[in-house]
TrEMBL record:
Belongs to the arginase family. Agmatinase subfamily. It is an enzyme of class 3 (hydrolase). This is Agmatinase. GO terms for molecular function: agmatinase activity. Keywords: Hydrolase, Metal-binding. Its EC number is 3.5.3.11. Signal peptide: none annotated. It comes from the Bacteria. It comes from Falsiroseomonas frigidaquae. CDD domains: Agmatinase_PAH. Pfam families: Arginase (PF00491).
Length: 294
């Protein structure tokens, strides 16, 4: 055990104090919550995830033996938003993300993924592959009448050509969904692995399917914490029963080493509904798995 107790760890993610992300990975919070979730409250997600990450600073990853303390990480604080202005906030997020070579974003609601993908698409000049952990397809044309929100993020990402739907795979889907939304999603070429299919196939088979869909070209990882069952992540805006266990998500991520991920986000942590930090710790753990995947 380290000589410094975890409660004394600096407030940056994994205790990181460096603020210059040049040549490495930048951690940034995006405390956006536009109130279109069933239960609002994700603006405090970045703070909670950073605080929970203090539990992960004491040594190397037991699977890859990567020590996060030796990675070129920087915690850049939280992005600036245009409070009350959805389009303005999306534009500001995109602008700030464009300046970071490799970004890991702590949400905030899932709507923040759209400007992150926009920034990467412009930087790379080609659509990305996309791995999504989520309970919801998020391909609705609108969300309670709001065109840009957490339920329509991937509709816009596909329509704008930010991602290649033939290289897009969603894991853990299980929420109610209109048949036309489901058919549209599959019709675009998206691979959907429902939570039940995931449970029946197992993480090893699912990870192999992810590798097959994404291939070797650049890809992005978006982890909505509600992919996990509420037993493992109660602190989220739209919980759905029958989800993934934390260990199942870990087991997939640990089998994705070598894939060309260009960024990641973990979103929809709502601390007001959490219990004993277990949702925030799960979110911090998924970022930890991403950083240490090898």
């Amino acid at each position: 055990m380290a000589g410094t107790p975890t409660y004394a760890t600096p407030p940056g993610f994994l205790g990181v104090t460096r603020q210059d992300a040049s040549g490495g990975t930048g951690i940034a919070g995006i405390p956006m919550d536009i109130g279109t979730t069933n239960r609002a409250g994700t603006r405090d997600g970045p703070r909670a995830i950073r605080a929970a990450s203090r539990m992960l600073v004491d040594g190397a990853h037991p699977g890859s033996w990567v020590d996060p303390a030796e990675l070129p990480l920087a915690d850049l604080g939280d992005f600036e938003l245009a409070l009350g202005d959805i389009q303005g906030s999306l534009a500001r997020i995109e602008q700030q993300a464009a300046a970071i070579d490799h970004l890991v974003a702590l949400g905030g609601e899932h709507g923040v993924t759209l400007p992150l993908l926009r920034a990467l698409r412009k930087k790379l000049g080609a659509p990305l592959g996309l791995l999504v952990f989520d309970a919801h397809v998020d391909t609705w044309t609108d969300n309670f009448g709001q065109a840009y929100a957490h339920g329509s993020v991937f509709y816009h990402a596909i329509k704008e050509g930010l991602v290649d739907p033939a290289r897009m795979i969603q894991l853990g889907i299980r929420s109610p969904v209109q048949r036309e939304v489901w058919d549209w999603t599959l019709g675009q070429g998206v691979t959907v692995v429902t939570a039940q299919q995931f449970h029946e196939a197992g993480p090893q088979a699912v990870a192999a399917q992810v590798r097959e869909v994404l291939g070797t070209a650049p890809a992005y990882l978006s982890f909505d914490i509600d992919a996990l069952d509420p037993a493992f992540a109660p602190g989220t805006g739209t919980p759905e029963i029958g989800g993934l266990a934390s260990w199942q998500a870990q087991a997939v991520l640990r089998r994705l080493g070598g894939l060309d991920f260009r960024g990641m986000d973990v979103v929809e942590v709502a601390p007001a509904y959490d219990h004993a930090e277990i949702t925030a710790l799960a979110a911090a753990g998924m970022v930890w798995e991403y950083l240490c995947r090898g």
